[in-house]
Design goal:
alpha+beta, BirA Bifunctional Protein, domain 2, Rossmann fold, 5-stranded mixed beta sheet, binds 5'-O-(N-(L-cysteinyl)-sulfamoyl)adenosine
């Protein structure tokens, strides 16, 4: 992509309304524009990151055997009357009336609708287990939308719903989600710690939130520091192996880690003092097992092998997809701008031509861009007629993890410069070697 033809409305001034780094940087880097309190347009650079996150989420859900669907954002109120949540949900629910005076709502979550789909189409234990999920916009009329996409009113969520014959099978689905979420967050370059939580309006006894540690997080967290060192890494997970999946969950949930809602000071005292940490965290996901809370009132039953019908055991599992964009920036930025992890970066590499119009520099840049594109890596090529300093500042602000800088001085000895946004480390290489390095880093070819 040539920057001269792109739409990247970066701001020079720091917007006064933004209180935290991620909000400031998303506005300054031209990723989003606020349209109303807690409601945003996603501009091209922001949309690219959002799509990358969605892609990682989809890949990890597919790996765990979960099946994508897409439900509407608008839902009939009658479904919610069946579960009695239409009245219970309160002012956070945006209620709408159509021209026929029928009550609708903009979905804040989808337990009722998925239960309706299930009861219409599934009737036997033979069809279980089943996990359906979507990535869809939600609306919650938050009393205090703030921090940009972190606490929006309209926000993008991955919400998955599990259907199982009994509690034991449903708890395996819960564990499977925990592990698939841990993998997802790791691929996004984040350490997200599962913490025992409170279930709120979704309901149920078993629930964990996933928290990314950050001083600007909205939740107070209490944890054993050793939990921050746990990694799934490249280990193979067999999602059908109940005991194996449960072992991974045990490994990640045995050390003390709680939010303020469930904090138990006496149990925390048992953590060795040097490991005892109090901090703040951003909730980037939550998983719930709530049994038959929705299936019973809504009549979602399945036939068991002996022919009796039982309400299906359910759970719901959410990832805050749009919030993750902010959370990743909170975890990865410096005073010059964003530093994207390679797994979510909007472009893998920026190509900066420091002397636009110089024949050798122009043709070398074009050659590098073509070579990268041929390997499935689309660079962002700064071909604008700007000073080198301004180009570097833009690249630093938007945070592409790698930069190839091309100018007449280096080209005199046949070299370009490959530099790393995170470490600042720079190396002079031939254009071919620079391309090969980037290809190697991103694992394409
Ligand atoms: N139905 C369940 C899971 S499918 C559910 O709604 N869970 S939730 O309420 O915990 O939301 C899931 C995730 O969405 C949260 O962990 C959080 O990361 C994200 N989220 C919730 N509210 C907001 C908001 N106002 N702005 C941005 N993200 C949000």
């Amino acid at each position: 992509m040539r920057l001269s033809r792109y739409f990247l409305p970066v701001l020079k001034e720091t917007p006064a309304e933004a209180q935290i780094a991620s909000h400031r940087l998303m506005l300054r880097a031209g990723m989003i524009r606020q349209q109303a309190a807690g409601i945003y347009s996603w501009l091209p650079l922001g949309l690219r990151v959002l799509r990358r996150i969605e892609q990682v989420v989809h890949e990890e859900q597919a790996r765990a055997g979960h099946i994508p669907v897409l439900m509407p954002t608008l839902q009939p109120a009658d479904l919610w009357r069946e579960s009695a949540r239409y009245d219970d949900y309160g002012q956070e629910m945006l209620r709408i009336r159509d021209r026929h005076e029928r009550d609708l709502l903009y979905g804040p979550t989808n337990e009722e609708m998925i239960t309706d789909i299930f009861r219409a189409h599934v009737g036997s234990y033979r069809d279980l287990p089943l996990t359906l999920y979507q990535i869809q916009w939600k609306f919650r009329d938050e009393i205090r939308p703030r921090f940009g996409v972190m606490r929006g009113r309209e926000f993008l969520m991955k919400d998955g719903y599990t259907f199982d014959i009994d509690r034991e099978a449903a708890l395996h689905a819960y564990n499977r989600h925990m592990v698939s979420y841990l993998r997802t967050y790791e691929r996004l370059g984040l350490t997200a710690i599962p913490m025992r939580a409170d279930s709120g309006p979704i309901g149920g006894d078993d629930t964990h939130e996933f928290l990314v540690l950050a001083q600007t997080g909205e939740s107070e967290v209490f944890y054993d520091d050793r939990v921050t060192a746990l990694k799934l890494g490249s280990r193979d997970i067999d999602y059908d192996d109940r005991a194996g999946v449960a072992d991974v969950c045990r490994e990640f949930t045995s050390l003390y880690a709680r939010t303020d809602e469930t904090h138990d000071p006496a149990a925390f005292e048992a953590v060795p003092e040097a490991q005892r940490k109090v901090g703040r965290g951003i909730e980037v996901g939550q998983i719930f097992y709530f049994g038959t809370k929705y299936s019973e009132p809504m009549g979602a039953t399945v036939a068991t092998p002996d022919g009796t019908r039982v309400p299906v055991h359910m759970g719901s599992h959410g990832i805050g997809v749009s919030r993750l964009v902010g959370a990743i920036i909170e975890a990865s930025h410096d005073d010059r701008g964003i530093v994207w992890p390679e797994g979510v970066t909007p472009f893998p590499v920026g190509v900066v031509n420091v002397k636009q119009g110089d024949i050798a520099a122009d043709s070398t840049c074009a050659g590098i861009c073509n070579a990268l594109a041929a390997r499935g890596l689309e660079p962002l090529y700064d071909d604008r007629d700007e000073r080198a300093g301004a180009k570097f500042a833009t690249m630093d602000l938007i945070g592409l993890p790698w930069r190839i800088t091309v100018g007449p001085r280096g080209l005199a000895t046949g070299k370009v410069e490959l530099s790393c946004r995170r470490t600042g480390h720079a190396e002079d290489l031939t254009p071919e070697a620079a391309v090969a390095r980037v290809v190697q880093i991103f694992g394409h070819g």
